[in-house]
Amino acid sequence: MNSSKNTIKILIADDHEIVRQGLKTILSEHSDLDVVAEAGNGNEALKIIQKTKVNIVLLDFDMPEKNGLDTLIELKALYPKLPVIILSIFPEDHYGTRFLKAGASGYLGKASASDQLVEAIRKVAGGGKYISPALTDKLVTDLNKDIKQALHESLTDREFQVFCLLAAGKKLKEIGTELNLSINTISTYRSRILQKMDMSSNANIIHYAITNGLIK
Questions:
Q1: Prediction pTM value
Q2: Last residue of one domain, picked from the residues 109, 124, 142
């Protein structure tokens, strides 16, 4: 750890230790960046932040117990000024805008170059937003083209979470447990999703998600 008061204190929240170690190795090469804590899930991250001073959170998109979107929303409610960068295996143009709207200061695909990550951390820690070239291109394209909104973009954040879990093949009971909601509530969300997206089954949801690159 670096001891300078001017270092950017970072919390890494990711359920894969190998990813956390890889990020720490990259960041340790820069004297102004200091990983002061690690968390394996969203709930753990929230507990750490209550006790540990951090300047920025690197938050995995997909974690057990409390996923990235739920953790982000809770973090921004409790600590509105704390910058959060979302890290995901999915490209920026699939999910980036949704997380930025939910309060993230940046969104990076895990395949991004290490210097891009360092640039993002420094910019966000200084109060800015980091939008990658890929996401910038999408935002500009969306503004300049009269394009039809993708079906999944009409879903609310909670509906979108349920949609992603259904697309991953999870049962209603499993989804209810993961999101801490009753099976009836999940069933209601599923009905809304099917109606909004003009679909009739989970198979339609899975096919759509695969076709549009929303799951791998």
A1: 0.69
A2: 142
